[in-house]
Design goal:
By secondary structure, this protein is an alpha/beta fold. It contains eleven helices and ten strands. Strand 1, helix 2 and strand 2 form a beta-alpha-beta unit. The longest helix has 24 residues.
């Protein structure tokens, strides 16, 4: 037993310098951020803001690779199968790592076993929007119309957060809407602008520019408190659906078996980037997203808790896995 302990200790000592070098020398070439959603979405925007900060810090380029579609399946699969060397990072949301396992009977990736958690990156609320031509000017008026004609009005979604926000609204307001899925929130907004759908609850990064431009009307925000970026817009809870609250979060993951020292280095880089003034100015402040960072271990625990929460919401909404 002593001999085995000594052998293990000797191996650990021999490995330590290599891990230390991996941490200190990383990155030595460009890093690729795989994003499960289209360019212009909130996830894309945070990836670019963090990537620019990391490039300024390390002098290495960060390449953004948008792999939109299939509820994040494409991006997640690609990231899971990438070399576990730290040069491929999945910048994602609760869609791929908390909601999908409850919305689909079979996933082409395992949100736990196939990934090494790196860090949480931020969290925030969403905004319920309609076309300005839509007759409802408040959440209460929208609910009243939907109750009068069940199933007549539709809502679009381009992410699990957006979809579940709409599903939860139906459940809590006791209304029935037609769900129209999209590959991204930006595509759903395009159809909302064109009148093909009636409503959506989207991330602030996608919705605010359209609201400020007068192209969409904001009815309420999904968070528990009003957004500092839209202080005149009430929460959905105070506007007619008491107790309503739904948010989203961003996080970074590496392929499973990525060396712990490399994961630690990525965590340091991403956390520092999230707290940088450049990222705050480019993404967090303009979108009203809260800087929310964790250690890899904390992200793993947070993900578990979030998955359980999303599972309860999906079950309560009566959604059948596809």
């Amino acid at each position: 037993m002593k001999r085995r302990t000594l052998t293990l200790s000797a191996a650990a000592l021999a490995l330590a310098p290599l891990l230390g070098h991996a941490q200190q020398g990383f990155p030595e070439k460009p890093i690729t951020f795989i994003v499960p959603f289209a360019a212009g979405t909130a996830t894309d925007q945070i990836a670019r803001a963090l990537g620019n900060s990391i490039t300024a810090e390390t002098k290495q380029p960060v390449v953004i690779d948008n792999k939109a579609g299939a509820s994040g399946f494409i991006a997640s699969q690609q990231a899971a199968k990438a070399a576990p060397d730290g040069y491929t990072v999945l910048i994602t949301t609760n869609t791929t790592h908390a909601a999908n396992e409850h919305l689909f009977k079979k996933l082409p990736y395992d949100p736990v076993k196939d990934f090494a958690p790196i860090a949480a990156l931020g969290k925030g609320g969403q905004i319920m929007v309609v076309n300005p031509s839509f007759p409802a000017k408040s959440v209460a008026e929208f609910v009243a119309l939907a109750k009068k004609e069940p199933g007549k009005y539709s809502f679009g979604s381009g992410s699990s957060s957006s979809r579940m926000a709409g599903e939860l609204l139906q459940q809590m307001a006791d209304i029935k809407l037609l769900h129209v899925p999209y590959k991204s929130n930006t595509l759903a907004v395009t159809d909302l602008l064109g009148g093909q759908i009636h409503m959506m609850i989207t991330d602030a990064a996608t919705g605010l520019p359209q609201i400020k431009g007068g192209k969409l009307r904001a009815l309420g925000v999904s968070s528990a408190a009003r957004s500092p970026l839209a202080p005149d817009v009430p929460t959905i809870s105070e506007a007619g659906v008491k107790g309503y609250e739904m948010g989203y979060w961003f996080a970074a993951y590496a392929p499973a078996k990525t060396p712990p020292a490399v994961v630690k280095r990525l965590n340091e880089l991403l956390v520092k980037a999230a707290k940088s003034e450049s990222a705050k100015a480019a993404f967090y402040e303009p979108t009203g997203t809260e800087v929310f960072t964790t250690s890899p271990e904390e992200l793993a625990r947070f993900q578990t808790a979030e998955s359980q929460k999303w599972g309860r919401i999906v079950k309560a909404a009566g959604i059948e896995a596809e």
